[in-house]
Amino acid sequence: MKHVLFTTTALVVLGSTSAFADVTWSGSADLSYNDGNMDSEKGVQPDGINLDVDLDVALSNAGGYTATLSGAMESGGNLKAEDFAVTTPVVTIHVGEVVEAANSAYSDISGMAGLGSDEFTGEDTNDVEGGDGAIRIQASAGGMLVAYSDTKSMSGDETMSSFGISGDLGGVGFGIGSKGDNWGISASGSALGGTISVASEEVNDVAITGVAVTVPLGDNSITVSATDDEDWEIGVSTSLAGASISASINDEEQSEVSLSTAIAGGFTLSVAYESGNSADSETEDLGNGTQVALEYALSDSATLTVSYNEDVDGDDDDDYDAGTSASLGFKF
């Protein structure tokens, strides 16, 4: 991470009377060999050698003002600016790929539809894959966070714009979100030595209420959730002989199992499996299938990784790239 001092040029961006602005450069680079990534429906890495770079530049000052520009270069292409954010002591404005306001405020329970997306890129109006960009404006007031998100044009179209408000009252966290005619209300707090979460929503004219309880039992943690639409899920996580293990199953017979452990030579082994749901489910979910990865930390900022991701559902949105890959990753 690099730090530089800029003078009055940067102050115009930050709107500050401070004499200097601190500029921080950070990011990551990944040099990889990929095979089979393009077999995934959402795969973007061609077979062979690929270089991905993410770069963040943040300008900040003592007044609590920060401007951050993020860019990315994928598969050896050109470095393109993707996200821009300005943060002040009260208001934050984020342009690019954003978490929709309703999605960030409202927390649904497993088996519920939820509101909005955590990767919202706006409306595709110029044949731009993934959308032309979105905007999110949030402000803090009275211990609460109020947010609004929309396309960059801020047309207010109910299929694109959303609203959210969240906060904490007496140790109970709450969130309220709305997008068009859809809405959701959630709350969570301490109970039974663990946590309990409750949510109620109406999405596409379907109203559902759900509850989830997480209880720690020594090195184990058990989570049970259920909705009034007969959805349920049970999950268990534990530590055993230095390994972190978790497993879950739901009402549609879809199961997940994961394990992460240190092995000889300083390597870390990660294994995960997600099955598809039952054949008589209302909607088909193929599950991700199998993921296996072996990682070795060369230093605090460099990691060598060899992985395989079956990616049966074709979303290429998992812990590791779809297909087989070997990569050398750097953080700076």
Kindly describe this structure.
The chain has a domain at 96-229. It is 4% helix and 56% strand. The chain contains 2 helices and 21 strands. The protein has helices at residues 8-14, 101-105, and strands spanning 2-6, 21-35, 48-60, 66-73, 80-87, 91-96, 134-141, 144-151, 162-169, 172-179, 182-191, 194-203, 206-217, 220-227, 232-240, 243-250, 255-262, 267-274, 289-297, 302-309, 323-331. It has a 20-stranded antiparallel barrel. A hairpin with a 5-residue loop joins strand 3 and strand 4. It is globular, with a radius of gyration of 22 Å. The relative contact order is 0.12. Mean pLDDT is 89; it is low at 2-20.
Topology:
Elements: E1 2-6, H1 8-14, E2 21-35, E3 48-60, E4 66-73, E5 80-87, E6 91-96, H2 101-105, E7 134-141, E8 144-151, E9 162-169, E10 172-179, E11 182-191, E12 194-203, E13 206-217, E14 220-227, E15 232-240, E16 243-250, E17 255-262, E18 267-274, E19 289-297, E20 302-309, E21 323-331
